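REVIEWER CHECKLIST
Item 1: Sequence provided? yes
Item 2: Single chain? yes
Item 3: Sequence as submitted:
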Amino acid sequence: MSDPMTNPASSSPTLSAALASLLEVALAAGVPEPDARAEGEALAATVAEAATGAWVDWVAQTGGDRSAEDFTAAASRGRRWRSTPTPTLARLAAERSGEAPAYAKALALVCTAGAGLGTPTTQTIGNASQAAAAQLGAFQPTPTPQTPVATSPSQTDEFTRGVRGLWGEVMGQLDTLRTRTEEVRAGSPLDLDPQADPWGPGAFGDLTGPRPSQPSQPSGPSGPTDASGPNDTATAGEPPEQPAPEPAKPEEPQKSVEELLAELDALTGLAAVKAEIHRQVAVLRIEAKRAAAGLKTPDLTRHLVFTGNPGTGKTTVARLVSGIYRALGLLSKGQLIEVDRAELVAGYLGQTAMKTQEVVKSAMGGVLFIDEAYSLAGDQYGTEAVDTLVKEMEDKRDDLVVIVAGYPVPMQFFIAQNPGLASRFRTTIDFVDYTDDELVAIFCGIATGGDYDVTDAVEARFRELLGEQARDASFGNGRYARNVFEAAVGHQAWRLREIDEPTVEQLRSLEAEDLSDGPPPVGAELLQTEPKPTGEEAS
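Item 4: Structure as written out by the authors:
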């Protein structure tokens, strides 16, 4: 008879046992039980959501009157915690609470238990590994507090000891999960040792000392297998059923400045934008030539402000700018990282700075594009993100460009709120709304690119729709043109639904009646086939 506190399929504690441990730590940390339980249940659900039968086990072990819908909702809530600490853990870490390491370990235990729900797969175990690392990774080996340090020596020592041991556990737990993943791939059972407690003393070795660079090797007939022998798991290769990795795809050839400028010029409208980008390129080219000639070069900022209503091409132009800067040798990679407030701001002060730093790190060598940047103005969390961003822009100015974008008036307020922003964003490019002719050209371009024909009647109908639209800040511009096209495709499909073998001409043709803001109409014949209620049903 198996131990009810462990999962016989994985030798890890059951979810119910892991949640009980989490609630015990939460009580000691002063965390409300409902908050801790909600975090644990959501974390386990998001780890296990891809496993067959996981929701059944989740319902059975979380208790209460639950359903598959509750499991799905919990998985959705917890999805972001696969890569970031939970809000409660983030707060405890920022406060340097002595219970923070224990709470992180309890959450990691929940992740491992979640991997055992239903039928474990490499994906669920991978989810558990990622989520556990995110929780345990909420600390640094030598933490730099973002909030005042506790004055009590015993509290400080407790925190430091907990953090020191935590990083040993990170490596130990990930080694365990990695081993389980390899066994799943090989088709072997997951039961490693039914009597072992993977979370007991010694499970991760000496947590305060250095860990070996490789996990211990299995013993052969005469003791541990030599690292150079055929049983070395580090060199044994993939299991037979593991498909051979595909050869790495060659990198796409880098486009020249001229090619990227040609793409920019091919965009519909945006005359002022194109002129400003061409001016920027000319200035940067001459700056490079002056430097090559040994002349002094002015300290020019390359960061940009894009203002304009939605759908005016800001993201498209930002992507071209990133490529142009790379082609000019100003950036090493030229990738575009697009974020908004949610990717920069955390739930607690102190965590926001770290979150913003991580985003900047991912954008190094390229362009960080912050859409709706004005949403960072007006509160202490946004201010912390902006202050961090200003410092990062200064420290990494040689290989980072930041473009902030949003509505014109709010962006003026955003730039004015911080003197550091005003000094670094000296160039503002205004993306004006498209004219009717430009929107017609965009619509026709989208349709032609999708192998659809646009007749004069279709074009006239599109102009009628444009005339009915309020052209305020909520108007979608290019997005509106795409939305109308996609709706027209749906209407055409409905119109052709009863033709078994439509001709190529019919498949390509859009008609004026296909253009509408709404969804395809439901046929009247479908409505008439609904049975009419009688007797008690009618009442």
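Item 5: Key structural point noted by reviewer: The chain is about 50% helix and 5% strand.
Item 6: Recommendation: ____
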